[in-house]
């Protein structure tokens, strides 16, 4: 078996992904990793920094993910949720479409939310200030 460092793994993982950080008062409050597919955007990772005292970080990043999908002309946003997170996604309008097995995470629920098309990304009217987001891309 070849040996790879954590850095190697993340550099490989980020190929083709778009990673956005939610910056609140100079602190990284959360991160979302988006993968662009033909008809949808996959939220490959959504995480909140537990050290930063901020509310609705996950909701705000998912709202951004939907806006990103709109501007890219995608029809859906897809998440693969752990059982403990299903309720969170359901409250935000995601619907279960299937289950899948992941050898790292176990059984995941594949959930989808339809994106209403628009031609303009306007973050200032929502919960996210565009100045709070930083993009990291390869």
TrEMBL record:
Coiled coil: none annotated. Residues 1-116 form the N-acetyltransferase domain. GO terms for molecular function: acyltransferase activity, transferring groups other than amino-acyl groups. It comes from the Archaea. Pfam families: Acetyltransf_10 (PF13673). InterPro entries: Acyl_CoA_acyltransferase, GNAT_dom. This is N-acetyltransferase domain-containing protein.
């Amino acid at each position: 078996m070849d040996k790879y460092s954590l850095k190697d793994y993340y550099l490989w993982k980020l190929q083709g992904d778009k990673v956005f950080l939610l910056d609140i008062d100079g602190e990284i409050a959360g991160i979302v990793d988006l993968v662009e597919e033909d008809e949808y955007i996959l939220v490959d990772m959504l995480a909140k920094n537990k050290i930063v005292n901020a509310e609705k970080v996950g909701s705000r990043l998912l709202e951004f993910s939907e806006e990103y999908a709109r501007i890219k002309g995608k029809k859906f946003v897809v998440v693969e949720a752990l059982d403990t997170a299903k309720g969170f996604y359901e409250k935000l309008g995601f619907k279960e479409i299937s289950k899948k097995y992941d050898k790292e995470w176990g059984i995941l629920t594949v959930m989808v939310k339809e994106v209403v098309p628009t031609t303009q990304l306007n973050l200032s009217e929502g919960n996210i200030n565009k100045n709070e987001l930083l993009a990291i891309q390869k």
